[in-house]
Design a protein that fits this description.
alpha/beta, 366 residues, Purple Acid Phosphatase, chain A, domain 2, 2 domains, 12 strands, six-stranded mixed β-sheet
């Protein structure tokens, strides 16, 4: 599926770039520079697009350069259609390159907002109730910090300060704390920042698909064993298809990531737990709702989707049955599910269909 999506993106970028060369060439400055010769107009247009793309790659990354290019193509196509319809209705031709100026202005504004939404962190609140005797429990939760993308270890520590101000009882991290773009120094700093927190019931972590790395320890300078060692050194509790009863009030269950072929079935994992206690499950990918709803779990917390990242493709994961939910709250039978959009992002520095966040979940007994 992801190979199909990648192929479609590459195809759209290549064909769209050809269209963009012709669209940019319509600006008057290129007509003046070329002396009215069409081939020169296209060469100037191709040159300016290539230079801008190369500069963006150097300043940000290839992935982000492609994202920006695709948005320019999309808005040039959209305003090209709007201008064409307007010409048919009014029978008048615009005196300026209305398509071009409108497309550039909207793309810049749209992606600026997307950059702000991705690189700043908001708080999202949930209020839940239960008949179980859990009393009052305040949970802080974030996923997908991907240290070194929108913030390094020091930046992560500052985000933790905002979470601590809410005075939660416990901090839960359902995966993708780090990835292949994280270096050892900032991984250690982030773990140490968690170790300095003072939550009543501590910090609990379960693995995501990026935490153990896809390319080996050589690329990022540390192994999954090194990560686990630093976490344990800083009193971070790791649950990998394991559970813990806390204060005789509630369970924390941490599942292995869906990508781990050895992970247990949800029903099997929770079998034997005291169902009179409130059961919280950390499962990085929100893709096993049917089994988790049958497992006696009360609350399942996930990340992974980054909230869909871009509008209007926000719910593609659900349409193709990759995820059960992209973002937010859902209830199935007696199980409640929450998917966070992530406190950071993986490689793309823009979010237009969502925002970066941490969640505060207040659970109260009826």
């Amino acid at each position: 599926m992801w190979l199909i999506i990648l192929g479609a993106v590459i195809g759209a970028a290549v064909s769209g770039s050809i269209y963009l060369v012709f669209a940019i060439a319509r600006f008057g400055i290129f007509k003046k520079l070329s002396g009215g010769k069409k081939r020169r107009e296209l060469l100037f247009s191709f040159g300016i697009i290539s230079v801008c793309f190369a500069v963006t790659v150097l300043l940000m990354s290839l992935v982000n350069a492609v994202i920006i290019l695709l948005h320019f193509i999309l808005f040039f196509l959209l305003f090209g259609l709007i201008v064409r319809i307007a010409k048919l209705i009014t029978k008048k031709k615009p005196k300026i390159n209305l398509q071009g100026w409108a497309a550039i202005a909207v793309t810049v504004i749209y992606l600026t907002v997307g950059y702000i939404l991705c690189n700043n962190v908001w708080q999202t609140d949930y209020s839940l109730t239960t008949d179980k005797q859990v009393g009052s429990l305040k949970i802080a939760m974030f996923a997908d910090s991907h240290i070194n993308n929108t913030f390094d270890g020091d930046g992560f520590a500052k985000e933790l300060e905002a979470i601590e101000k809410q005075e939660p009882d416990i901090l839960l991290i359902p995966g993708d704390f780090v990835d292949d773009g994280t270096d050892r120094e900032n991984m250690v700093k982030a773990c140490e920042a968690l170790g300095k927190t003072n939550f009543k019931y501590g910090v609990w972590f379960s693995y995501g698909n990026h935490d153990k790395g896809y390319y080996g320890s050589e690329r990022r300078g540390f192994s999954s064993e090194d990560l686990e060692s630093e976490m344990k050194k800083n009193n971070i509790h790791i649950l990998s298809d394991e559970y813990e009863l806390i204060d005789n009030r509630f369970y924390i269950v941490g599942r292995k990531d869906k990508s781990d072929k050895g992970r247990k079935d949800a029903v099997e994992l929770l079998q034997g737990l005291d169902t009179s206690k409130y059961i919280i499950v950390l499962d990085h990918q929100p893709a096993d709702y049917e089994r988790e709803a049958k497992s006696n779990a009360d609350l399942v917390l996930s990340g992974h989707t980054h909230g869909g990242q871009f509008f209007p493709i926000t719910h593609v994961g659900e349409w193709f049955n990759i995820n059960d939910r992209t973002y937010g709250y859902e209830k199935r039978d007696n199980t409640e599910f929450i998917v966070t959009s992530g406190i950071s992002c993986w490689a793309i520095k823009f979010k237009t269909g969502t925002k970066s966040e941490f969640a505060i979940i207040d659970i109260k007994q009826n």
